[in-house]
């Protein structure tokens, strides 16, 4: 259980910063041996991609903002 916690922590850390070779190897080796953690890693990647897409799409052009404001009033 502790190894799974460490591997998932390293996966999330890798989304924010570059891991050292030792951390990267530990995470990848654990994912190789533990199918649930490997699935978690894939799910985490997909979630991060979706969040990045939402952040880039959340900016509305000015005409669209005006249209939405009129509909609200």
Give a description of the structure.
With 73 residues, the chain is mainly α. The chain has one domain (2-72). It has 4 helices and no strands. It has helices spanning 2-16, 21-33, 35-57, 62-72. Helix 1 packs parallel to helix 3 (35-57). The longest helix is centred in the middle third of the chain and has 23 residues, at 35-57. The chain starts with a helix and ends with a helix.
What key phrases describe this protein's structure?
single chain, elongated, 73 residues, 85% helix, 0% strand, mainly alpha, 4 helices
**Largest beta-sheet characterization:** none
Query: pLDDT average, as an integer?
Result: 89
Beta-strand percent range: under 5%
**Care to count the β-strands?**
0
Q: Into which percent range does the helicity of residues fall?
A: over 70%
Order of helices and strands: HHHH
By helix and strand content, what is the structural category? mainly alpha
The domain tally reads 1
- Rg from C-alpha positions? 19 Å
The total of helices stands at 4
């Amino acid at each position: 259980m502790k190894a799974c916690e460490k591997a998932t922590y390293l996966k999330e850390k890798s989304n924010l910063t570059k891991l050292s070779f030792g951390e990267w190897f530990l995470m990848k080796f654990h994912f190789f041996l533990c199918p649930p953690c490997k699935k978690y890693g894939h799910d985490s990647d997909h979630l991060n991609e979706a969040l990045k897409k939402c952040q880039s799409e959340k900016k509305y052009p000015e005409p669209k903002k005006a249209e939405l404001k009129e509909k609200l009033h």
